[in-house]
Design a protein that fits this description.
Blueprint lengths: L1 H17 L3 E8 L5 E2 L6 E2 L9 E4 L2 H4 L8 E2 L7 E3 L10 H12 L3 E6 L4 E3 L4 E2 L12 E5 L20 E2 H12 L10 E4 L25 H18 L4 E7 L2 H6 L6 H4 L6 H16 L6 E6 L8 E2 L2 E2 L16 H9 L18 H5 L6 H12 L4 E7 L7 H16 L4 E4 L5 H11 L11 E7 L5 E8 L2 E11 L6 E8 L4 E10 L2 E10 L6 E6 L3 E9 L19 H14 L2 H11 L2
Parallel strand pairs: 1-22, 3-4, 3-18, 4-7, 7-12, 10-11, 12-13, 13-14, 14-17, 17-18
Antiparallel strand pairs: 1-19, 2-19, 5-6, 6-9, 8-10, 15-16, 19-20, 20-21, 21-26, 22-25, 23-24, 23-26
Helix pairs in contact: 4-5, 5-8, 8-11, 9-12, 12-13
Length: 592
């Protein structure tokens, strides 16, 4: 009995030790590190939810899409089969116009994929024999970037019997139907095909050897990029072109082992720097910018195991569909830590994620600063787009936490466009909604990033924002990544505003539904303490005391500013309502 009692006490003691809170200090400065948060980081790849801001029509299915008749071939994804996956062959462009119509209805911008592998599907149903029927053959039509002749009239009525498909004619049709890129409904963004670095790769792991038999080369893709971007900008000068739409890190490195990489690289350290540099040179020659955003895909290579003979062991965190039914502690932990590879300079080998990239190419990590450095060096002012990404765990809290963390990183580090690829599962939706619809009323995180830091980046993350520089409402996304312990957070705010209270919404391991939870009140001297339970994401909204003399705004109500609206209001009323001393006080506010 004494043994059992002692064991019970020991277990209770161990449990209490495990559950002990972690102390984390968060520092926020509403006037420091202000940078705009692009609205385009909240994007998807064709999902139906309205809280997305931009959608992409892309993926392997689009590389061999024939806009004239809507036939396509998904390549290795489905038997190299020419088919009518997108539906009937008429009217021309229907797969894209249906997509764009949906985006217009939901007030979303669009990325449309352009075909540049060389061939697209002919209207012949066929499972292609790669040895005898790959392009060029009767089963495929060649693609020409610039027609060099009058476009079909009316737009959208191409000659479907000439055996050629024109890209600039396609864009001319979209401009005719929706307007130019600068118009409210115009298509603003175009992808330079999809993952060209793996169109063909000795037929091993290749996506499209039916339309691109030879292994793709760096020079080929660069030359095609220059020709296609010029053709499209001749039709719509303000259209934004995104490339190279690389499939992953080995594509960034040397275009997935391209045969001409050594001969073209020069002093440029990886393919992305070569591509940026060559597009800059071509743009200078053309007298206009040809590449608007460096576009890559990022699927983490992190594993939930250890290194065995220098190779990662265990399960890759994104390879869980149909394989991982119950997420292990190691799998959850690896997923929640993986976003640090995007930004954290200390999260590299021998520390950091278990992956072949970190083991052998840690000098290229963290990845966002590396991409930004290449842009700044080789083609300044090019934006950064990540048009496919996924961290797995869509139906587990670890997936929601990783997702919310990644969105915060994209906003903080000035990513321009980001599009999630995958099913919008329960916790993925929670990760989106905590930024885009946290209260069920479509309220959102702010549009201006401000300084926020945490004393413990292993167990927690924090992101802070305000709206258009108005510091009277401060938004914080605070994440507890610890599986066992709550965080006791001490929040220190430096601001010209005096924050008095806050509301909090969260999702956690118990539910992917976002609910309002314990509020914050009072706040003393812009400092407060708040507990964040284990594996929880919180959206904290802090309200400041209204500034003295903020009596009105553009909408006729106080807006958090002391500005010309308040001065006008004052001048209209002061003779009746105020003494001269009030005017002197107002003048102090204005620094008169």
């Amino acid at each position: 009995m004494r043994y059992i009692a002692s064991l019970t006490i020991a277990l209770i003691f161990c449990a209490s030790v495990t559950a002990a809170n972690i102390n984390v200090t968060y520092n926020i400065n509403t006037d420091a590190n202000k940078t705009p948060i692009s609205k385009y980081i909240y994007g998807g790849n064709g999902q139906s939810d309205t809280f997305y801001t931009i959608h992409r029509s892309g993926g392997n299915r689009l590389t061999a899409y024939n806009w004239e008749n809507n036939w396509s071939n998904a390549g290795a994804d489905w038997l190299y089969e020419n088919d009518q996956f997108f539906g009937p062959s008429t009217p021309p462009g229907k797969a894209i116009t249906d997509f764009r119509d949906s985006c217009v209805t939901n007030h979303q911008d669009s990325i449309v994929t352009l075909q540049m592998a060389g061939y697209v599907s002919a209207p012949i149903w066929r499972q292609i024999n790669l040895n005898t029927e790959a392009a060029p053959s009767i089963y495929f039509y060649p693609v020409v970037f610039a027609k060099g002749a009058p476009f079909c009239s009316p737009p959208g009525s191409p000659n479907t019997s000439d055996g050629v498909v024109y890209m600039d004619e396609f864009v001319n049709f979209l401009v005719y139907k929706y307007g130019y890129a600068g118009d409210p409904n115009g298509v603003k963004f175009y992808d330079l095909d999809n993952e060209p670095d793996i169109w063909s790769n000795g037929n091993k792991g290749a996506t499209h050897p039916e339309v691109h038999v030879a292994d793709p080369c760096c020079l080929e893709y660069k030359d095609k990029s220059v020709a296609l971007t010029q053709a499209i900008k001749n039709v719509d000068p303000n259209a934004q072109m995104l490339g190279p739409v690389s499939f992953g890190f080995s594509g960034y490195l040397d275009f997935a082992g391209a045969s001409d990489w050594t001969s073209v690289k020069g002093s440029r350290p990886w393919f992305l720097s070569y591509y940026l540099d060559e597009m800059r040179i071509a743009s200078n020659g053309a007298g206009r910018r040809l590449l608007d955003a460096l576009d890559v895909h990022w699927y983490p290579e992190a594993y939930d195991g250890t290194y065995v003979n220098d190779n990662p062991d265990g399960n890759r965190i994104v390879d869980e569909i149909g394989k991982i039914k119950v997420y292990s502690r190691a799998n959850r932990t690896a997923r929640m830590q993986a976003p640090r590879t995007l930004w954290d300079t200390s999260y590299v080998y021998p520390n950091g994620e278990v992956s072949w990239i970190n083991r052998w190419y840690s000098s290229y990590l963290p990845i966002i600063p590396k991409l930004k450095s290449s842009i700044n060096t080789y083609y300044p002012d090019t934006n950064l787009a990540i048009t496919e990404y996924d961290y797995g765990g869509g139906n587990d809290v670890s997936g929601g936490i990783a997702f919310a963390d990644v969105l915060g990183i994209f906003g903080k580090y000035e990513v321009y466009i980001a599009n999630y690829w995958g099913e919008p599962n329960t916790y993925i939706n929670a990760g989106f909604k905590i930024y885009r619809n946290y209260d069920g009323g479509h309220s959102t995180f702010g549009d201006m990033n401000v300084l926020a830091s945490m004393s413990n980046k292993v167990d927690s993350s924090i992101y802070a924002s305000v709206f258009n520089g108005n510091n009277s409402e401060l938004h914080l996304i605070v994440i507890n990544k610890n599986i066992d312990s709550a965080i006791t957070g001490t929040f220190n705010i430096t601001s010209s505003q005096n924050f008095r209270s806050g509301h909090v919404w969260k999702f956690d391991n118990n539910s992917y539904n976002i609910t309002e939870t314990t509020s914050i009140s009072p706040i003393s001297n812009n400092t407060f303490t708040y507990n964040i339970p284990a594996t929880t994401v919180c959206h904290i909204v802090l309200q400041a005391d209204p500034p003295s003399w903020d009596t009105t705004g553009p909408a006729g109500v106080p807006d958090g500013y002391v500005d010309i609206f308040d001065l006008e209001d004052f001048c209209n009323q002061w003779l009746q309502k105020y003494m001269f001393g009030h005017f002197a006080s107002f003048a102090q506010v204005w620094g008169m």
